[in-house]
Every structure is written in structure tokens, then in C-alpha cells.
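We include the entry.

. . .
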Amino acid sequence: MSMIRDLRSVVRPARTSLRKETGGYDTTRDPQTPSAVVDCAVYRDGARVDFGRPVGPHEAMRHVRRDGGFVWIGLHEPTEAEFAGIASEFGLHPLAVEDAVQAHQRPKLERYDDSLFTVFKTIHYVDHDELTATSEVVETGEVMCFTGRDFFITVRHGGQGSLRALRHRLQDDPELLVKGPSAVLHAIADHVVDGYIAVADAVQDDIEDVETEVFSPGRKGSPRGTDAGRIYQLKREVLEFKRAVSPLLRPMLLLSERPMRLIDPDIQKYFRDVADHLARVQEQVMGFDELLNSILQANLAQASVAQNEDMRKITSWAAIVAVPTMVCGVYGMNFEHMPELRWKFGYPMVLGITAVICLGIHRTLKRNGWL
């Protein structure tokens, strides 16, 4: 059990370092290599077999069938023609092969006769100096895993989510790799979910920044609608995040609770830990959505209150201006017999009365909070 006890420390890097890793990803396939295969290795007794030269999938599988162990093949965005030979060699189901080539699949777990097909959505947080209404907050990729008795195949889509560092960490602990492909599947699941946790922390910081700005007292100079656009953009990014997290919970629960002949019993219990972390992230993302709804409603309410205040001010000044307008309108009529037309003090009296009335209306409206 000491071997299994070290599982977390091996496959799960420190949270701070993982968050830094989400900002940079190594390359996909070697530009000098026409094949989609990024790496192909044979593992026997927990160690990588050194052939002294690169080996192809077919040679690696022949070696495994002859001497034992398992083969781990990593591919990046293979075409149908590039993947056809590997699919035939390992007897992969055509429907799973089609999903792996076409990508854009929701997270899921499918069981076939001799293999498991698992789809993970990888999430990458996009660093930005300032959140705007058009900022991209998260980028998504995909990792598809074929788990067999003596093989493990990963198919990646997107420019992020590299498994190279994870492969090296697993190779540094042979006691884990000796458990076979199921140990690799758990390591990838744990790695992906830890990525979710790091991205969730970063998104929470963005939401807190927006919340602070929306509810900060005395906020001035902010264009109307700017905050609403930023909040809506965050909601779109959180929705993308939720699409990656929520569907994955059931597959992780199945891997942790239902016995499967391709999953080592010692490894299976650790899928429960992954499912627990995933459930926590799901709750956090759901909370993000509800919080953003509240912030958006509050922002819209603030905009409505500001508009009402503007309308009250406009109405107040219109009421004040109505008095001199009415007086001028009356004395602008062309009647010969109008009172006080010939009086020496008629003009200043009319101006004075008009000013007193306007000042009285202004004072009343200001006392009532309209001005």
C-alpha cells in the first residue's frame, strides 16, 4: 500500500506550480515527423523499455505481446488515415475511433469488449491584464484515452493539455506504472481535474474583481453597459467551463464505484478522490454562474436607478422652466387690454414673481431628493 500511498504526490504537482503550467504548453507533434505520434513507449515491470531508438506502435505492440508489459502511445490531432493503422492493430471500436478523430466530444466513458474509451475536456486559463467585454478567459482542448489490457492510447486535440510532464513523473515512480494502463488513466484524470481547480481559482479572482467594481461606492466615469458586457462575457466563459466539468462527474463515479476488469482494484479507489475533487469544482462553477447572475442583475438595477435619477432631474428642470415659459407665453399674446402693460414696475414685478416661484420649486424638489 505504500506504493499506492504515493500516488497523489506523483501524479499531482503542487497547486501553485500547476497554475503556472496552465499558462504554457509544450509543442504537439515534431514538425520534422510526418506522423501524428508524439510518443510511443513500452513499459514492463514499471520501467520504460529502452530500445536505443524510436519505435513505432506496431513494433511496440509486438514486443508487448511477446514479452509482456503495456504500450503507451500519445497522438496529437491524428487524421483518419493516420489513426486507421493503430485502430486496426489494437482492435479499437469504430465509433470510438470516429469520435477520437473528429473531436468536439462531451466528456464521457464508454465501455467496449476489450477497451474503455474516456473523453476529458482540458481547460486552460488565458492570462489578461484587464478583463474586457471581449476577453477570452478559458480555452478548451480534449484528451481521449483508450484503455486496454496491455495498451493505453491518448489522442489530444488543441494546443494545450500536454501530457509530456505527466509521463515523465510517472516514469520516475515505477511502482505506479507496474499497475498498468489503469494507473495512467487515473493519473490523467487527476491531472485534468487539478487543472480545473487551478482555473476555477483564477476565474474566481476575475469574478471578485468585477463584483468589487460593480458594488464599489461612488463609481464614476464608467461607460454605460461596460460592466454588463464584461459580466456577460464571464458568464459565457463560465458556461464553457461548466460544459467541461459537469458531464465528467458521472464517468468518474462509475470508475470509482463499479468494478471493471480493465481497472486495477488498488487504483479504482483513487478515482473516488478524483470524483470528490471534481464534485467540488462543479459546485464552485455552479456558484460562479449564480453569482454572476446576481452581479448582472445588480448592475442592471444600478443602471435603471441611474436612468431614473436622470429622468427625475430632467423632469425637475422641466417643471422649473415651465413657469417662465408660461409667463412669457401669456405676455406674448397680442391683446390690447392686458393688465399691467403700462405699469412702470410691471416688468420687474413679473420677473421677481417668476424667480420666486422657480426658486420655490427648485427648493422643494431638492428637499425631496429629485435634484
Remarks:
- The first strand starts at residue 37 and ends at 44.
- The beta strands are 37-44, 47-48, 70-76, 108-111, 115-125, 138-148, 151-157.
